[in-house]
Amino acid sequence: MSSPQRVDLSGTWKMVQVDNFDAYLQALGIGFLLRAIAKMLSNTCVIEQEGDTFHVKDINTLQTTDITFQIGIPVEGSGVIGKYKVTVTWDGDVLRGYTETDKGIIRTERYIREDGTMLYSMTAPNGVKTTQIFVKQ
Question: Which is it for the CA torsion 36, 62, 82, 13, positive or negative?
Fold first, then answer.
């Protein structure tokens, strides 16, 4: 049985708006200096999607993060939040991430809004949420 047709998130996406980012980073225990730098960065996200396999590259002036994953299969990595294990699933047309970290569970969601922009939200273990809006280039 084939998997259902999903929305295609492929493309190069430029962040045009971010809300509550400082509070989110603070909730993760990120220090003042790194938070100040992070707030000044512009972010581009490149997504390559082939079926249920994704390659996501986040690019900013300080660093590039790169992850490849398949829906439902946990992937381990490390970053400013330390070591993590993330599992991504589909919920309708919403890509939901469940990231296990030493600080607790971070939940994410990514989807295309009615106006064609992409929303990416991250919720810290204590419930503080940041939302980023991207436009396709």
Answer: positive
Give the tokens for residue 68: 């490849």
The C-alpha atoms of residue 68 and residue 63 are separated, in whole angstroms, by 17
Alpha-helical segments (H) within the chain: 21-27, 32-40
Planar angle of CA 31, 37, 42, nearest 5 degrees: 135
Confidence class for position 19, pLDDT limits 50, 70, 90: very high
First to last CA, the chain: 35
What CA–CA distance (Å, rounded) separates 82 from 24?
16
What pLDDT is stored for residue 65 in this prediction? 87
Q: What is the pTM of this model?
A: 0.90
Residue 19: strand, helix, or coil:
strand
Q: What tokens does 15 get? A: 């962040």
